[in-house]
Specification:
five-stranded parallel sheet, seven-stranded mixed sheet, 326 residues, 12 strands, elongated, Rossmann fold, single chain, 2 domains, alpha/beta
Length: 326
């Protein structure tokens, strides 16, 4: 055999062997949202940005599998089963409801966002410092910020006497946060009307808002979770038609038509969650990673909606705002 032919045959053989060998499997970060793809978009992008920040290249060093249940817990159960079967290496769960459902289905590690600041549900975690089990994550402080929201509402509407509170009635965490907001409102001299939603029905949400308005609510505070998140458009549209300003926890609501939002900067939490997911993929145990608290908060004022409702936003509020939507 000639030398040139031999070299060519050897190279061909090596290439064939390389192709026959299985490619290394890329780790998969699974995002399981109970809300819609639209409302989860900034959260998923936060995860992707966080992975880029620590040097990952999606499709080359890691994969992101993002699924959305559109407010339907039964659909979420099906998605979790499919992701477990794939399998993903670590879940990112945007909320305690998603985390709870994943925990019931699998021991795959979970990085959860929006956990309560205290271990009120022992099945979720044991303590902030050492959560134990297969879950860790970040608290959004949730309704620990309710006092500040009421203060902002009173600054915007000094003549308000009655505030409506809209929340998920089925989830114990958000039911408790609704109760805490009610307590905060009463402590600041407001009458509070609390209404719990039981489904993602737009008719139910619209009826609840009409009832709150009929009962004298001057404004409505929306407790953030997958259910109210999936109903954002209905909540802000109906409330505006009723002349009832909406104050929410997350920027998404203000961008969609709430007059104000104040709360944790959620994209920052999801960026940080990506780093936790990476550490777990590399071998650290989630139960040994402390549940962290938020480092950034933001106030957003939607001047366009305020003007449509005939409201004058005081300069004191505008000076506090991180963003003003004109």
């Amino acid at each position: 055999m000639r030398r040139r032919e031999f070299i060519g045959l050897a190279a061909l053989t090596l290439a064939s062997r390389a192709q026959a060998q299985p490619q290394a499997r890329l780790p998969i970060v699974g995002f399981l949202g109970f809300a819609t793809a639209v409302t989860d978009r900034t959260s998923v992008e936060g995860v992707r940005q966080g992975l880029r920040d620590i040097g990952h290249v999606e499709g080359e060093t890691i994969l992101v599998d993002a699924r959305h249940a559109d407010g339907d817990p039964r659909r979420a159960t099906e998605l979790i089963a499919d992701m477990v079967g794939r399998p993903v290496d670590v879940f990112i769960a945007p909320g305690p409801a998603a985390a709870r459902s994943i925990l019931k289905a699998t021991k795959i590690p979970i990085v959860a966002i929006g956990l309560p600041p205290m271990p009120s549900e022992p099945d979720l975690f044991a303590s902030l410092a050492k959560p134990g089990g297969s879950l860790t994550g970040f608290s959004s402080l949730g309704e620990d910020l309710s006092v500040k929201r009421i203060e902002l509402l009173r600054e915007l509407l000094p003549a308000a006497n009655v505030v409506g509170i809209l929340h998920n009635a089925a989830d114990p965490v958000f039911r408790d946060w609704g109760v805490q907001t009610e307590v905060s409102a009463r402590a600041q001299g407001l009458k509070a009307l609390r209404f719990g939603l039981s489904s993602s029905s737009t008719d139910e949400a619209a009826a609840a808002l009409r009832r709150l308005r009929a009962d004298g609510a001057d404004a409505v505070i929306v407790i953030r979770d997958f259910l109210t998140h999936s109903l954002t458009d209905e909540i802000v549209t109906t409330s505006t038609k009723l002349g009832m300003p909406v104050l929410a926890e997350e920027a998404f609501f203000a961008q969609a038509g709430a007059v104000m939002s104040y709360g944790t900067h959620f994209p920052d939490l999801f960026r940080r969650a990506a780093a936790y997911a990476d550490r777990i993929i590399k071998g650290e145990r989630p139960g040994d990673l402390p549940i962290q608290l938020p480092a950034r908060f933001e106030l957003i004022v939607n001047m366009r909606v305020a003007k449509a409702l005939g409201l004058t936003v005081p300069d004191s509020l505008l000076l506090q705002a991180d963003e003003v939507i004109e």
